[in-house]
Design goal:
alpha/beta; three-stranded parallel beta sheet; 3 helices; globular
């Protein structure tokens, strides 16, 4: 069974997130996008990605704080 590797993309710039998501999916990754730190924490638990691409400067909870919590 060939399952796609999962990537959680955390980026508050929606246009940039769309570009990253498109490219990652072209490369064969299952990609979930969230737009702030609160969503990132919930998605990390629910989605269980192999990799998290995390923006540092975001509203609500910064990427640095998300990293500390995870």
């Amino acid at each position: 069974m060939d399952t796609k590797k999962k990537i959680l993309l955390v980026e508050d710039d929606e246009a940039l997130a769309a570009v990253y998501k498109s490219r990652l999916e072209i490369e064969g990754f299952e990609t979930k996008v969230v737009y702030n730190g609160e969503e990132a924490l919930a998605a990390a638990v629910a989605f269980r990605p192999e990799l998290i691409l995390l923006d540092a400067m975001m509203p609500k909870i910064s990427g640095f704080d998300v990293l500390d919590i995870l």
